[in-house]
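Duplicate of #3305? Posting structure anyway:
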């Protein structure tokens, strides 16, 4: 629907979105943006609803953070650097 609005000139700045529309709707959607956009909107609506309840949002945020454990970005990047490239982290001198 969003693409249709942009393509049907409902948007006053159609040319701003033409490249995106051509990619998503023109068979070049390598990241499947258009394929799961509806489920993305559903998930965003659920997040918006959860955000309206501060207690629920706080609980979900804490559980999400603590549940990520081994999948944190620092560990992921460190493992990738060590296992893929065979490099170790560099250290920066302190300023004082």
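Output from current build:
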């Amino acid at each position: 629907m969003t693409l249709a609005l942009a393509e049907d000139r409902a948007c006053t700045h159609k040319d701003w979105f033409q490249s995106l529309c051509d990619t998503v709707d023109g068979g070049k959607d390598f990241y499947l943006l258009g394929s799961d956009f509806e489920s993305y909107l559903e998930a965003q609506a659920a997040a918006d609803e959860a955000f309206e309840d501060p207690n629920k949002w706080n609980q979900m945020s804490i559980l999400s953070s603590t549940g990520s454990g081994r999948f944190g970005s620092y560990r992921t990047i460190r493992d990738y650097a060590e296992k893929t490239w065979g490099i170790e982290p560099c250290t920066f001198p302190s300023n004082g």
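Confirmed duplicate; merging threads. The CA atoms of residues 35 and 45 lie 18 Å apart. The chain has a mean pLDDT of 80.
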